[in-house]
Amino acid sequence: MTAAPVISVRGLRKAYGATEAVRGVDLDVRPGEIFGLLGPNGAGKTTTVEILEGYRGRSAGEVRVLGHDPADGDPAFRDRIGIVLQSTGVERHLTAAEAVALYAGYYARPRPAAELLELVGLGGSADVRVGRLSGGQRRRLDLAIALAGSPEIVFLDEPTTGFDPSARRDAWGLIRRLADDGTTVLLTTHFMDEAQVLADRLAVIVDGRIVAEGTPAEVVARVPAPTTIAFRLPDGAVPPADLSVDADPERPGRFLARTEEPTPLLHRITTWAVGAGLALDELSVTRPTLEETYLSLTGHAPEAEAAPDPGIGRRRRGRR
Ligand code: ATP
């Protein structure tokens, strides 16, 4: 893990008039890793990512992406990155193969359309018009287009919003394969399970600042949050008060203890139960999840999955 970063950001700031959207972000992304950027609406994720892509200027700070300053607008830089936005604006009358070939034509190192469609699982839909693809297929087409120039870095903006569970799994597999093949992936997402499964490392951004960074496990471990010990007792049995175990208000007969030091408490609970000749049915010890950590870092619940909305090109930007 000593390879030089492909994305390096120091002291990044961006103000829109009086609104300070990004307030001093430092970031390193290493080659071939999947880096997740998490945060509530308005935290500054899109602003940060668009500065890295070269689509937005910055107010202050140093930014290097593949050795370039994205603000220079160097076409050689644009050729080395791929971008997938939240929704597609691809011409509806083209077939999937024609759409991919059209975009591939902009690049110095185009990949064949058939290969790209195969890669994203659209091999059987090459001759289907874009307007007839399902929402999930359109998102995959967007990914094929983003990969058309054999990019070294792919920027994915909420890549699975609107996907059904099996399509999400497929997308995760595809993103993982890209990274395994050496492509660096910068991903924004509102889904904690997605970040937990996919991200090698992640940063949580709140009000324009990074509040936690590391592997998902490191981020969870850095924020003190209680582990939950749960078990069920036979009718009428109650743990002694000094164990600080509470009855589960929602499930009679079940008990819960929340502690930041689970080992000694578990020892005391099991010692008591064995001494009393009781079995702790359904005994479980649950570590804090990334979702709970995110909640305590941001004060926000992760957004619920949005309804599919493939028709609106929210932030589709042309190449320039
Ligand atoms: P989301 O999860 O909703 O996509 P985000 O984390 O990507 O949010 P940004 O879109 O970067 O957040 O917005 C950060 C802040 O900057 C917000 O307060 C937003 O209103 C503001 N902002 C973003 N773009 C502009 C703009 N073009 N002009 C003025 N203010 C902007």
Can you describe this structure?
- With 320 residues, the protein is an alpha/beta fold.
- Helices cover 29% and strands 24% of the residues.
- The chain has ten helices and 13 strands.
- The protein has helices at residues 45-53, 75-78, 96-104, 113-119, 135-146, 165-180, 192-198, 216-222, 262-275, 290-298, and strands at residues 7-16, 19-29, 34-38, 60-65, 81-84, 153-157, 184-188, 201-206, 209-214, 227-232, 246-247, 254-259, 281-286.
- Strands 5-6-7-3-8-9 form a six-stranded mixed sheet, sandwiched between helices. The protein has a four-stranded antiparallel sheet with strand order 11-12-10-13, with helices on one face.
- Strand 8 and strand 9 (209-214) form a beta hairpin.
- Helix 3 (96-104) packs across helix 4.
- It is elongated, with a radius of gyration of 24 Å.
- Residues 304-320 have low confidence and may be disordered.
- The structure holds adenosine-5'-triphosphate (ATP).
- Adenosine-5'-triphosphate (ATP) binds at residues 16, 19, 21, 39, 41-47.
Portion of residues in beta strands equals 15-25%
Query: Which regions contain 5 or more consecutive residues with pLDDT less than 50?
Result: 304-320
Bound molecules: adenosine-5'-triphosphate
- How are the strands of the biggest sheet laid out side by side? 5-6-7-3-8-9
Gap from first CA to last CA: 34 Å
Structural class: alpha/beta
* Fraction in helix: 25-40%
Main sheet record: 6 strands, mixed
Q: Total helix count?
A: 10
Radius of gyration: 24 Å
**Average pLDDT rating:** 88
> Tell me, what's the shape?
elongated
Q: Give the beta-strand count.
A: 13
Give, in order, the helices and strands: EEEHEHEHHHEHEHEEHEEEHEH
